[in-house]
Amino acid sequence: MTTKEVNFTVHHVARIEGHGNIIVNAKDGKIEECKWEVPESPRFFESMLRGLSYSDVNFIAPRICGICAVAHANASITAVEAAFGVKPTEQYSLLRDTLFDAETFTSHVLHTYFLVAPDFFNVGSVIPLAATHTDVVLRALRLKKFGNDWADILCGRKTHPISQVAGGFVKLPTVEQLKWIKDKLEGEVMQDMAITVDLFKTLKFPDFTRETEYIALTKPDEYAFILGMIGSSDCKPVPINDYLSMTNEFCVPQSTAKWTKHLRESYQVGALARFNVNHDKLHPKAKKVAQELGLKAPCHNPYFISVAQLVETMHTVENSIMVLDKLLSKGIKPEKPEVKVKAGRGVGAVEAPRGILFHDYTFDDDGKCIAANIIIPTNENHNSIQHDFNKLLPEIIDKPQDEIKKLMEMLVRAYDPCVSCSTHMLEVKFK
Amino acid sequence: MKPRVAFFDFTGCEGCQLEVLNFNLEIVDLIGAVDIVEFREASSDHSEEYDIAFIEGSQTTQKDVERVQKIREKAGILVALGACSCTGGVNALKNRFPMEENLKVVYGDAAKYYTTIPTRPTSAYVKVDVHLHGCPPNRNEVISLVKCLLTGKKFELCHNPVCVECKLAENVCAFERGEFCLGPVTRGGCNAVCVTAGRKCWGCRAPVDEPNINSEKELLAKYGLTVDDVLNQFKLFNGALEVSK
Question: What is the number of structural domains in chain A?
Fold first, then answer.
């Protein structure tokens, strides 16, 4: 029996987007407090969007998040398209798919290299690695820069996107630009990905499991990122319009973010949830990466979210090579996005890098927004993080305080939280 | 000693900090020239000592206001980074409604647990030395500011309207495409990125200091618009700014 006290608070956990605190208070191995707090200042997007025209809504909504602005743009645009009954053309769908791949690719590279990797090198950030592991940092920067360039070509600017509107793109990429992206993907990016996979093979992820429900968009014939049905590890898929029956939001005093649950005490969304629900639809190289890194469905270790992200990064590369082939074989045709405004409600859904994201708008006859509801993946994961903490802390309570702190911070970071969406998070408080 | 640089995030999307990370390869050189002591989005190392403080986001609670005032006391130079800090940005859209209504719409019955104050620019609370406008700010402008600070040169904001850069980019005028563009009266420095990408200017970089009022009036008359239309349109990113007609 230990006779020590473990008391700490990590205030504003670093290397996550947004603010969160971890509070732990234990005496003689008995846990008195173990809390995941989300003190982010609320931003009131659902209230702010009221009264704006649908096109301003689409332009403003990505400002919810600087990292996954393209995901928010697409959740917002698919909601407007659902409300107005817009059916995307094949060319628009393909361009949107490769833009979305660029989003997932860039965000996963940022997260795995810049936010997660420093933990494995025992440094506070990627900055000291620039001197000690220059090749790693240069590769990370190269991959990220390419991801940005890839998205910039398609939407004008990754943070915050410009060219995509309801019904299509107002500015189309040239054939040369698409060829440039494809050449990069097939050449330099594939090589860098192979080295990245080798690097990941050397990382040892903490051993911890907690089985829970996993929720992700799903489609019969592809690894879903945009629309589809809402899939779950625990039940049959449900239509996107019924999302409220899955999310069941509730407020908790320790958080400005709303929490969610479905069939169990909590559910998880994000790369690992997608992998668990949709792994059989991954492209071959991505499947091979999963196999090489020991990721098998169903995986119940949340630290492996980062591994699932790397698997998905490979999937986006393979997917976009195929999408670009299709676009290039047909050439780029001029298309003018058109929508017919009408009163009504539309729900849009995408798999943001961090998990399933819903935008739900109601418009009046003039296309002005009269009501908005937005459910972001990070909020869906707060409850899962708390329940992971509840199981993890007793398992590691005998370890030194610094190690406990690091394992808990790493767990939060694995979820890749992006709390600015409505709230910020990450400080571990040991009181 | 290298200047110690700190980034502080308040209420916002953190896209401005991300744009700094997006310097990509240049960031490696810049990092060598300064000492980044606080950058929570990318680093868990932090320090209470700094010379240059970048403020990202709006101050939307009383605690935020006190925090930014403390930062001001310590910082030699305080930079407002991005629209939310410079003008309130999109966060000021909530000022169109009573705060109780915003809380009720988002939190319903749980509204009583939360507080919020109307959004104002950071300069409403503390002295701001440099404003780096934009949603998001322009990377090159951030780099040129850091270079000026390192070499002691005076940093100059762009004093042209977006329109000038748009013409240099040889874009078809957004008005000609039937759009209502704020390019003629918005501060440039963004290379007219939104018009170049096929849309219009939304005014995220705030009004230019000395707009050509006569030419704007002619333009508005030509397209059947009024000064009030312009002010209304400006509210999307500048709702907390007092703009005179």
Answer: 1
Which domains does chain B possess?
4-151 (3.40.50.700), 162-238 (no CATH)
Per-residue tokens: A33: 């407090």
Name the residue in chain A with its Cα closest to that of B9. Answer: A18
DSSP structure class, residue B89: G
- The pLDDT of residue B136 is above 60: yes
To the nearest whole angstrom, how far is the Cα of A151 from the nearest Cα of chain B? 12
Distances (CA, A) of B39 to A125, A383, B21: 9, 27, 10
Separation between Cα atoms, residue A20 and residue B147, nearest integer Å: 33
Q: Which amino acid is at A420?
A: S
Query: Tens digits of per-residue pLDDT, A355-381?
Result: 999 999 999 999 999 999 999 998 899
Yes or no, beta carbons of A15 and B22 under 8 Å apart: no
Kindly identify which residue of chain A lies nearest to residue B60, measuring between CA atoms.
A41
What is the mean pLDDT of the segment spanning B111-132? 92
CB contact under 8 A, B44 and A15: yes
Global pTM reads 0.93
Q: Do B15 and A65 touch (CB under 8 A)?
A: yes
pLDDT digits (tens, 9 = 90+) for A298-327: 999 999 999 999 999 999 999 999 999 999
Query: Is B64 within 8 Å of A66 when comparing Cβ atoms?
Result: no
pLDDT exceeds 60 at position A428? no
**What CATH code is carried by the domain that includes residue A301?**
1.10.645.10
pLDDT at B212: 87
Is pLDDT above 80 for B43? no
Mutation target to probe the B interface, by most B beta carbons within 10 A, among A15, A41, A76, A114 is A41
Minimum distance, in Å, between the CA of residue B215 and any CA atom of chain A: 26
Nearest alpha-carbon partner for A70 in A45, A44, A43, A107: A107
Whether ipTM tops 0.90, in short, is yes
Q: Which domain holds residue A272?
A: 5-430
| Of the partner residues B24, B44, B135, the one whose CB lies closest to the CB of residue A145 | B24
Using CA atoms, how far residue B44 sits from A10, A139, A403, B160, in Å, is 11, 22, 15, 39
